Amino acid sequence: MPAAIDLQAAPPEFPFELVRGEVQKVEQAILDQARAFDPALEGYVSYVCKSSGKRIRPALALLAGGATGGVSDDHRKLAVILELVHIASLVHDDIMDGAELRRGAPTASAKWGNALSVLLGDMLFAHALDLASEFDDSAVSRAIARASKDVCAGEILQTQRRHDLTLTVSEYLRVIEMKTAALFSAATEMAAYLNPEGRVHCAALKNYGTKLGTAYQIYDDCLDLVGNEQSAGKTLGTDLAKGKLTLPLLYLLESATEVQRSKISKRIVNGEPMDTSILAGIADYAGSIERAVQFAKNMLIEARSDLIALAASPEKSALDQITRYLDKLLDKCRA
Amino acid sequence: MPAAIDLQAAPPEFPFELVRGEVQKVEQAILDQARAFDPALEGYVSYVCKSSGKRIRPALALLAGGATGGVSDDHRKLAVILELVHIASLVHDDIMDGAELRRGAPTASAKWGNALSVLLGDMLFAHALDLASEFDDSAVSRAIARASKDVCAGEILQTQRRHDLTLTVSEYLRVIEMKTAALFSAATEMAAYLNPEGRVHCAALKNYGTKLGTAYQIYDDCLDLVGNEQSAGKTLGTDLAKGKLTLPLLYLLESATEVQRSKISKRIVNGEPMDTSILAGIADYAGSIERAVQFAKNMLIEARSDLIALAASPEKSALDQITRYLDKLLDKCRA
Q1: ipTM score of the complex?
Q2: Residue A36 sits in which domain range?
Q3: Closest approach of chain A CAs to the CA of B183, in angstroms?
Q4: How many CB pairs under 8 A join A and B?
């Protein structure tokens, strides 16, 4: 049976102080979900709920709710549903990546094997959709189902294009919009939707979520290339090892001469740790990392502009602060 | 890209003549779903939709609709959703079982690997739930999500109890009610629900689906033990090889003396092909197969009694005929 895990050991990366109390309530509600399952299955569910997910999507839903009229039980439920979908996708990701550890704890697939983990992810996802169907308005179920479909479709598209040096920047952006930004934007859009007076802000908050999610993924991609393992708290260089082409490398390929391109391609195809370090160095030297960082920073400016029409509130300020926090993280990728 | 597959090559096992035209329409609608995906993903979706699923659940939904007021587009949509969920579960089952072939065609995992197949199953499932959310009434989404959760939970419980000789008959029945009967009963219950005048029959048709699904799984379990591979058209003896204890064996264990039990247990744990043949012989000799067949036949009598309150209609007769057809198949397990 699962070992105890200290939740406090892994605080959210983002400045979510304003909703920390609310996130804690949602945290408890996520852990309570385990009780909705057969006693023989409870242990699996509570283990993965405790050991995966940074609660970014719940925090965004709670902040967007607060910024558009207030946080109700419906927002808390939306937050739980989004995180369950995210946890389900992490359980399946870990199977696909053959990952042994997530945030220092053994993954479900490492503990119980792939067969059980496939089913566990499915069951969590089905449970999330079951919760979503409790809303009278089927728009919530629909948004969750579509965002989930986008997450999977984005992952498949990415898997298909591994080691494919013909991937374009716009194809890459479409993939990350699906695999990462879809759940961010579902969080902020649906949170506005759940407040009758907030519906007018749905489109703007959907955009905010999309831009923030895209910038977040680009940051994560840059970090994987140039980050320091100790401060990042995770293994880096894994994208390249798996043949994933990320924005800095796509920019590097784009700007290279024919001769340079052939040299870079060899290192990308090899994907050895040393190649990663050298490619990071070349990408830095050629200005490609700067270009990726700048692209993400522009996304964050757009995300902030999506907040303009919202009435002033502490939650609006927090949504703004999140973009500024991510902006600072992006600066560190330049060093 | 997927090879063409002759749909007609694998007709439904059940006597669905009455709704063959309707099932064909649903068949087309299932194949049309592929177009709801990115062009790069269409091929995967259409391959698994063409090569998996016997359309039993769609046929049941259409017959139950016809028997409770008539078949509408809502029933056709329900039929598509149920089959997509079933196909998604087959894609994941084949990963877990390491299956290379399904109905003579390579499985998705054999063609494209496990990583892509995990995502493909997830995406189909999310798409099914997306379609379900198009119903104004969230009861449909809820029923689909819950049935899906049951299917996964039943599979996990079964996986947990592999090679476990302490499994009881009632635990076994609970597992198959979840993993198989849940989608059967969702098909018949929700079909009645979609006809305003049919809602009074929801409970009876839910029971019908549960009993039919349970009897079907017991038939499948008996076939795996005593069937002829050629006439069954699939590899047999796989349950035991995987450590799955099915009803005939549970009855055999139940009725055995201490000494006999120890002998049987050894063969079950070994699970070699010869052990399967010998266990089948012993189960036949000891009357355990007869007992399992009789149990399933009683389920079918109960299923028929659930139809009594329905007004006479060709579809009601067809639902009755299905139970009689399965009854005849069960007779063959006695030979």
Answers
A1: 0.89
A2: 17-334
A3: 13
A4: 143
